[in-house]
Automatic annotation (TrEMBL):
It is found in: Nucleus. It comes from Glarea lozoyensis (strain ATCC 74030 / MF5533). It catalyses: L-lysyl(79)-[histone H3] + 3 S-adenosyl-L-methionine = N(6),N(6),N(6)-trimethyl-L-lysyl(79)-[histone H3] + 3 S-adenosyl-L-homocysteine + 3 H(+). InterPro entries: Dot1, DOT1_dom, H3-K79_meTrfase, SAM-dependent_MTases_sf. Belongs to the class I-like SAM-binding methyltransferase superfamily. DOT1 family. This is Histone-lysine N-methyltransferase, H3 lysine-79 specific. GO terms for molecular function: histone binding; histone H3K79 trimethyltransferase activity. Histone methyltransferase that specifically trimethylates histone H3 to form H3K79me3. This methylation is required for telomere silencing and for the pachytene checkpoint during the meiotic cell cycle by allowing the recruitment of RAD9 to double strand breaks. Nucleosomes are preferred as substrate compared to free histone. One of its GO terms (cellular component) is chromosome, telomeric region. SUPFAM superfamilies: S-adenosyl-L-methionine-dependent methyltransferases (SSF53335). Its EC number is 2.1.1.360. Keywords: Chromatin regulator, Coiled coil, Methyltransferase, Nucleus, Repeat, S-adenosyl-L-methionine, Transcription, Transcription regulation, Transferase.
Length: 421
């Protein structure tokens, strides 16, 4: 992933530049709705224990005893949360100041997501009842813990922790009954789209466990080159992939995929086959860790996703990526800091794309004043057509909170012929 910090200048395409319409094409049959339920084989595979990073394992300093009291054990300050699938529960450490993850808040967020997404309104009533529902009990116990902290007590009282653990146990028991009655699976079978808030929650779980503890590895970059690191955030990824009309039966490729964030989001949110390619060693190491944890998280949630492939190496030379690009429907190139030479090399690479493939970028591949003439008839850029210039705002990219521009370009080999007419 190759980006840089600083302000982004916004340049608009002049209104007098000729826009050539795309030829009329026959629409392909509508794709089948996405299936969110894991296959029966996968469901059997999900049962039991598997490798995952528990929230309790992300503590800054591993320890064998609790700081709450001399007699307290690690079990006393650990709670296990059940997820919608038949798989194992997750361990959370409830001791203040020791977790990289806000365990209490994440547990409540998960419970709310389960009630909102996996249950009907009637089934969710015991969870969402405002006075005595399972989630309200979690919130009351959370508030008592927070008040304890406000009073200046460094560690929570054991009785307050026990109240929260008891609320988690009640929630777990209710969810387990629904799972055994096949309610969760039946409800999920009727759904074909994940809400964005749920997508963000799952991606954040993965990132906080696999990347955040080692995020300093990503700060080792070279200013002014093609390998400056930065991330597109889920908000912008959701925006641009939705605008390309990405579907679950399509192929997505991220060129310069960093730690794999966008490739994972495409597979999770849209259910498509998703590819990424990255050459920076540290980013690749963290991307592999994210992919493993992503698989574990989706097993916990019981969600079927698109298959994820993360390649290591130069995307200009990686043959598996080149072969995939030929059948790709959407390609993302985070080219904010790319040199002009690398951008031109990409334009040449785009010659092999199929017509209709959409390219998302932060810098345009087609110059603003470009017009096809006899003199530049063989220029590879003539096969590309800018279909949209869009704006992004705060919480869209990691290197600035200011607004910027993105481009959606389409491979259109007929553009040259239409320009001659």
């Amino acid at each position: 992933m190759n980006l840089f910090g600083g302000k982004t200048g916004i340049k608009r395409r002049p209104a007098n530049v000729r826009v050539v319409s795309a030829p009329v094409v026959t629409k392909a049959p509508a794709p089948l709705p996405r299936n969110l339920v894991s296959s029966r084989e996968q469901e059997r595979h999900n049962r039991g224990k598997f490798a995952m990073i528990h929230a309790a394992d992300t503590t800054a300093v591993p320890r064998k005893t609790s700081t709450i009291s001399e007699s307290a054990t690690i079990d006393d300050i650990t709670v296990k949360l059940r997820y919608p699938s038949a798989s194992q529960r997750e361990r959370y450490d409830l001791e203040f100041g020791k977790d990289r993850i806000d365990s209490v808040q994440e547990i409540i967020d998960i419970a709310k997501t389960v009630a909102d997404f996996y249950l009907t309104d009637e089934q969710a009533k015991p969870f969402l009842e405002p006075n005595s529902g399972y989630i309200r009990q979690l919130e009351k116990a959370r508030n008592n813990l927070a008040n304890n902290k406000k009073r200046g007590e460094i560690t929570p009282r054991p009785v307050l922790l026990n109240d929260f653990k008891a609320a988690v146990d009640q929630y777990n028991a209710a969810l387990q009954k629904l799972r055994l009655d096949k309610v969760l699976e039946q409800n999920l079978d009727d759904k074909h789209h994940l809400p964005f808030n749920m997508v963000k929650l799952i991606l954040n779980q993965v990132y906080e466990r696999a990347v955040s503890p080692k995020v300093d590895l990503l700060r080792q970059y070279e200013n002014g080159g093609d390998n400056v690191y930065g991330e597109l955030l889920p908000k912008l990824v959701n925006q641009v992939l939705t605008e390309t009309n990405l579907k679950s039966d399509q192929v997505f490729v991220d060129l310069g995929s960093g730690v794999g964030n966008v490739a994972l989001q495409a597979a999770l949110e849209f259910g498509c086959e998703s590819w990424g390619c990255e050459m920076m060693e540290n980013a690749c190491t963290l991307a592999d860790a994210q992919k493993r944890e992503f698989s574990a998280r989706c097993r916990l949630w019981g969600i079927a996703t698109g298959k994820v492939h993360l390649e290591k190496g130069d995307f200009l030379e990686n043959q598996r990526i080149h072969a995939t690009m030929k059948r790709a429907d959407v390609i993302l190139v985070n080219n904010q800091a790319f040199t002009s030479q690398l951008n031109q090399a990409l334009v040449n690479l785009f010659l092999d794309l199929k017509d209709g493939c959409k390219i998302i970028s932060l810098k345009p591949f087609v110059p603003a004043y470009h017009v096809i003439t006899d003199r530049n008839d063989n220029d590879p850029v003539n096969n590309l057509r800018v279909t949209k210039e869009g704006e992004y705002y705060s919480d869209s990219v990691s290197w600035t909170g200011e607004r910027g521009i993105y481009f959606i370009t389409e491979k259109d080999a007929t553009r040259r012929h239409l320009a001659r007419e």
